[in-house]
Amino acid sequence: MSLTRKARFGIGGGVVGAAIVISAVFVLTAGTAKAKEFATLHLLGGTVEVQPAGGSFQPALEHQTLRQGDTVRTGADGRAEITYFDDSVTRLDYGTTFQLKELSTLQNSSHSKIIEASQTTGRTYNHVTALTDSQSRVEVSTPTATASVQGTKYIVWIHADGSTTVQVLEGTVEVTDASGNTVSVGAGEEVTIAPEGTAGDVTKMTPDELNGAWIQFNSQCDASAEAGTGSVVCGETVVNPSPTPTGTPSEGPGSSPSQSPQVPQGGGGGSSSSPPTTTPPATSPPTST
């Protein structure tokens, strides 16, 4: 028997009932076995902490292994990158909290991937690799809207007032708000979901937004990764994906890193002393910085 669902990439805001979900449509065959996967954490500067499932926050380590249930939190000066088992990437800006809910592969002929996460504060840049089969999904949950993606680049920004802005750089994202209204957001467009869960109008991103420091920072990271040199340059930070991880894998409740964090100097793409302002203007989506 098959069960048709929508997989979600949702974002949780600080206001009850306000949420955004970004998802990929899939068909899940009931009873399909899953193999647990993991992700790898890269430090891009400043304060970064990891809370293992059931544990407490501890200083993060470069190349730390992340498993489902783990939460990554960046400080006011911190940035980090999560690389998933399928090479999709989430980068966390200053003051962001991001939990991995599920990381697994279905034991079917397509080896369908499942990535579920929850963002409750801050801003992320998400580069999702193309979903090539009907059972794959990428999902994050919060209490207000739903959006569908099939391999794209987009930003999710939770503001101090509880509103959320989704900015699409490549591809198309279908955003459904808490009332069930769906809007299509294409490349170079954005939509803001109000704290109560109502989607505003889809608008073109301004030149200032498209050339903002956070987008430029991630463009540099992506270009370096695509060059295939073996090292990824993000701002002033060089990430080498090949060395043996220095972090202690978080394998269960209460586990924590066993050595001091190794934090690269300089986050690039902006000042490391304070995060960009995240409160939106009253009448329009905020300018990305």
Summarize the structure.
It contains two helices and 24 strands.
Note down, in words, how this protein is organized:
The strands form three sheets. The chain has a 20-stranded mixed beta sheet that branches. A two-stranded antiparallel sheet has the order 1-4. A two-stranded antiparallel ribbon has the order 23-24. The chain has two helices and 24 strands. It is mainly beta and 289 residues long.
List the helices and strands and how they pair.
Layout: E1 2-6, E2 10-12, E3 19-23, E4 25-29, E5 34-36, E6 39-43, E7 48-51, E8 58-59, E9 64-66, E10 71-74, E11 80-83, E12 89-92, E13 97-106, E14 113-128, E15 137-140, E16 146-148, E17 152-158, E18 164-170, E19 173-176, E20 182-185, E21 189-193, E22 203-204, H1 207-210, H2 213-226, E23 232-234, E24 237-239
Parallel strand pairs: 2-14, 3-16, 14-15
Antiparallel strand pairs: 1-4, 2-3, 5-13, 6-9, 6-11, 7-8, 7-10, 10-13, 11-12, 12-14, 13-14, 14-17, 16-19, 17-18, 18-21, 19-20, 21-22, 23-24
List keywords for this structure.
two-stranded antiparallel ribbon; globular; 20-stranded mixed beta sheet; mainly beta; 289 residues; disordered N terminus; 6% helix; disordered C terminus; 2 helices
